Amino acid sequence: MHAWRLHHPGGPEAFVLEELPTPSPKEGEVLIRIRAFGLNRSEWFTRNGDSPSVKLPRVLGIECVGTVIEAPGTPFQPGQTVAALMGGMGRRFDGSYAEVTRVPASIVFPLQTTLPWEVLGALPEMLQTVHGSLHTGLGVQPGETLLIRGGTSSIGLTTLALAKHAGLTVWSTSRSEAKADMLRQAGADEVLIDDGELASKVRALRPGGVDRVLELIGATTLLDSLRCARPGGVVCQTGILGGAWVLDRFEPMTDIPSGVRLTAYSGGAGDITAEALQDYVDMVQRGELTLQLGPVWRFEQLREAHEAMDANMAGGKMVVVT
């Protein structure tokens, strides 16, 4: 099989296309012929050397969709359509930047769908992360107001779609006025231009603050996001699009407004059921849930796809088809 391996951190050119032995699955493992996989910031951070726990060389890739080749000792059957995500994939063991991957059955989800591979490939990790952020991290309820900080990212746009479907009023942000119309067309009830200071803009519209804040930028804007939430509201950090992993100075007694709750979401495959993932896929197939998809790349174009990530040119979830 062919696979893109990363031997050392670097730019897109650090990926090397190699011919590797096709792995043999052990009892409880699933061998998958990969048909498509989404590209994620997790892999971008690893490529740049910001994932010290990942031992190189490694085939990156934390998700994929495809068909089962073999699955000894599991309920999965050869030819069955499946998704696999997280659980150490592309980090503790080789992942999806390949034609074939071998993964534990515990992170594999059966899917019944007629969606094309390039659409299906965009969904697993994106849906799991948003589902976990909304329900595990934020505990959203219908009728609440949610502020998405980092709204034009693929996770931000998917959160907008799922939150509207769940009955929330959604405010979303962009650093660019040029992208504001895209957010409105995607269903945002309010669009705020983010210059790093949102709290005063939020309070001008809602003096008491919003119910929930999904923080996708990360440490660079987290303290300001805390000031956007009402007492009893929740701020959940899921992303680190701003590139900063830690706060240089953090004083909880003064930086967390009284009564505001701060949490984070970095869960995995166990936070979504096979039934929930299938429901979301069905909604996409029926046209009830519209997600913002980005460019589709061929397997041999992986380096070009990462160049697009470097340049923030995605405009939605990017997918590689094999």
Task: Write structural notes for this entry.
Strands 3, 4, 5, 6, 7, 14 and 15 form a 7-stranded mixed beta sheet that branches. The chain has helices at residues 41-47, 117-120, 124-137, 154-165, 180-185, 199-205, 222-226, 252-255, 274-286, 302-310, and strands at 2-6, 15-19, 29-38, 63-70, 81-85, 100-104, 108-110, 145-149, 169-174, 190-193, 210-215, 229-237, 261-264, 293-298, 317-321. The mean pLDDT is 94. The protein is globular and about 60 Å long. Helix content is 25%, strand content 27%. With 322 residues, the protein is an alpha/beta fold.
Total number of strands: 15
Helix content: 25-40%
Under CATH, the topology of the largest domain can be stated as Quinone Oxidoreductase, Chain A, domain 1
pLDDT below 50 for ≥5 consecutive residues: which ranges? Answer: none
> Mean of the pLDDT scores?
94
The rough form would be described as globular
The proportion of strand residues reads 25-35%
CATH architecture call of the largest domain: Alpha-Beta Complex
CATH class (first level) name of the largest domain: Alpha Beta
Provide the structure class: alpha/beta
List keywords for this structure.
single chain, 322 residues, alpha/beta, Rossmann fold, seven-stranded mixed sheet
In short:
Helix content is 25%, strand content 27%.
SSE layout and pairing:
Elements: E1 2-6, E2 15-19, E3 29-38, H1 41-47, E4 63-70, E5 81-85, E6 100-104, E7 108-110, H2 117-120, H3 124-137, E8 145-149, H4 154-165, E9 169-174, H5 180-185, E10 190-193, H6 199-205, E11 210-215, H7 222-226, E12 229-237, H8 252-255, E13 261-264, H9 274-286, E14 293-298, H10 302-310, E15 317-321
Parallel strand pairs: 8-9, 8-11, 9-10, 11-12, 12-13, 14-15
Antiparallel strand pairs: 1-2, 3-4, 3-6, 3-15, 4-5, 5-7
Helix pairs in contact: 3-4
